[in-house]
Design brief:
GO biological process, one term: response to stress
Protein name: MarR family transcriptional regulator
CATH architecture: Orthogonal Bundle
Oligomer: single chain
GO molecular function, one term: DNA binding
CATH class: Mainly Alpha
Number of strands: 3
Structural class: mainly alpha
Organism: Streptomyces coeruleorubidus
CATH topology: Arc Repressor Mutant, subunit A
CATH superfamily: Winged helix-like DNA-binding domain superfamily/Winged helix DNA-binding domain
Strand order of the largest sheet: 1-3-2
InterPro entries: HTH_MarR-typ, MarR/SlyA-like, WH-like_DNA-bd_sf, WH_DNA-bd_sf
Helix content: 55-70%
Length: about 160
């Protein structure tokens, strides 16, 4: 890793917070949080996902995710069903209304992201994705990084 990890951490945190603020400003128009957007996006594959996968994807601890899913159920955006492969587990899926909402949100975020022109050239974006994926994999592989499952998520303030 970098000779001075605090420099890398600072740059990553700054980029994440600035991009999250920008996306949140769009989502605010729809009264939607980034975490809800992440959940809707993951569920848009139509597969249905366990709460653990949703918590990891949304970077939320389990109790916070349960509260969010309850809200999304109340809004008729998602529904829960028993996992046929393991009746002790619950799968969450999008409703048709949830799918339409996710499409509207994604269109709005993409439109805003593209308004100022591309932030990075296409090849730079692919290179950045590859490097960030490699970094995340290396950090996960070190065994020193916690996840959202019942533990404090890395980089999440309480």
């Amino acid at each position: 890793m970098a000779r001075r990890p605090q420099e890398l951490l600072h740059l990553l945190t700054r980029a994440e917070r600035l991009s999250a603020r920008r996306v949140q400003s769009v989502l605010d128009e729809f009264d939607c949080s980034i975490e809800a957007w992440r959940v809707l996006d993951l569920l848009s594959d139509g597969e249905g996902h366990h709460m653990t996968a949703l918590a990891d994807h949304a970077f939320l601890p389990a109790p916070s995710l349960t509260k969010l899913i309850d809200q999304l159920v109340d809004q008729n955006l998602v529904f829960r069903r028993v996992d046929p492969a393991d009746r002790r587990r619950v799968l969450v899926q999008l409703t048709p209304r949830g799918m339409r909402r996710r499409q509207r949100l994604s269109r709005a975020v993409l439109a805003d992201w593209g308004e100022s022109g591309p932030v990075l050239a296409e090849d730079e974006e692919e290179q950045l994705k590859t490097l960030l994926d490699l970094l995340a994999g290396a950090l996960e592989g070190s065994g020193k990084v916690t996840t959202a499952r019942g533990e404090r998520a890395v980089g999440r303030a309480r």
